[in-house]
Amino acid sequence: MSTDGISSEEVLDAADVALAVTDQRGRIAWANRLMAVLLDLTPDQCVGRSLPALLSGAPEGPHQGVVISDAGGNGHRWLEVSCTALPEGRLLYRAADVSRWRADGVDSVQRTEWEAELVRLADEDPLTGLLNRRALTRELERRLAQGGPGALLLLDLDNFKDINDLRGHPTGDRVMRELANVLRARLGEGHALGRLGGDEFAVVLDGMGEGAAVEVADRLRGAVAALPVPGSVGTTRITVSAGVAGFGSGDSWQAVLANADLALYASKAAGRNRATVYEPGHYTDTALRVSVLDRIRDALANGGLALHAMPMVKLGTNRVVGHELLLRLEDGREPALSPGEFLPTAERSDLVLEIDRWVIGTAIDALVAHPYPGLRFNVNVSGRTLEDEDFGDFVVRRLAAAGVAPGRLGFEITETAAVTNLTAARNLAQHLRTRGCRISLDDFGAGFGSFVHLKQLPITGIKIDGEFVRGIDYGSRDTVLVHGIVDIARGLGISVVAEWVERATQVEALSRLGVRVAQGFHLGRPEPLRELLARPHGAWMRRPRALSDVPASLETPG
């Protein structure tokens, strides 16, 4: 048989695998060029000779290693030989020369070393050289099978994304390698250290209780904090959150890992840069958190979220100059959840990004439906959304598509969130302000160095933290502080709004200090946005009926 003038024998003769056809007794009827080379013969010299004899033992199974001497007698070659039955009682032998595969003369010892290297690479994290997740969990499983006590320690870098975003991924990789070296050096021998992925590491502490594991975690946190961030200036440092879970005979590695992960999450939720030991309550907290997130997802999909509007009132005239929009969960399910119960959970997940966009879209739709310049909204921006690089463009596109004047929509960023994500806050504020939107720094005065932030952030207004307003009518130090805030804001040309106004005497005190706009239950309670917009045109510009003393805790939007 031939194809385009080329016979099948010619094709097989050019193959990269040694081939030979024999009869049932092993006498060679045909051999290709490579088989002849392996046998140190020509193809013609192979015909009629016994292949088993030439190979020093015929293969008995589909795969068998056969050692043959080389032509010079100076060593051996390792062949992998398979045998397949052909029609008419013939046999087809395939011989693969491992020494040729391994580039010119790798013997069986070198092959063994090569295979060991492959095993090592399969268990090693390529970036840090530590155990990878597969090897670390296998080590945890092995120590659990031995029955001895111990503890699993999980370590996760805090805000590592900022390093990658600001310094670049090569710098992030360098930090990972330096961190691995520090952990390896501080732990010493006897403990399994691995990288589970991303910026999360794990240590199996054999024979160690939870208390001792926390001490190890604290030492490691201190060592990591001393690491300089490449390319940074000033006091930039790396912090680590840790979770500890003890283990003993009968525990599964999956349960131990899950417990340590719950403890790590508790450390993150408590403010980061700390170590937490797993407690059964952490599971309950996590189950509740997952349940809350499920409810929020359902609410987003099925109309279970609503906005309430709190009026901002110009003191002295009682005229409403705008409304702050506050999120509510109204899904009809029990137990009912206040903003303080569901928003913190949402803000610790990416779900808050969807929520913020829903709020923006709903606010813009309302402004489109009621195109009156006097109707203006303020919306809150979460700290997580500050990190969303597409959020500013999303807002600008929605406003342009809706034909809404940007000045009708304002954004409030809490001072705490702005300080935590200063660069992101500055970029977003600049982006939206240049398009005509209003930008306010909420809870002003709550953070250290508040006045410095006025210089660094391109804002149009501030909202004085309610803690400074609570006792403003009692002649306390709050009076001096608020007076200073108002003077500085006036000098910078930015507006001031006071929060938590509960009493008429507070209104009087704030007016004397130069505050012109305020909000609080004394000036107007939040009401459903749909009810506000159902009023006749212009009715929302009038201050609602004043309320008597109402606890400030009820006013806090959450």
TrEMBL record:
Residue ranges of every copy of the EAL domain listed in the record: 289-540
Domain annotation PAS: ranges: 9-51
Organism domain of life: Bacteria
Annotated GGDEF domain residues: 148-280
Name of the protein in question: Diguanylate cyclase
Gene3D superfamilies, A to Z: 3.30.70.270, EAL domain, PAS domain
Record NCBIfam families: GGDEF (TIGR00254)
Gene Ontology process terms (BP): regulation of DNA-templated transcription
Species: Actinophytocola xanthii
One Pfam family in the UniProt entry: PAS
Taxonomic lineage from the root: Bacteria, Bacillati, Actinomycetota, Actinomycetes, Pseudonocardiales
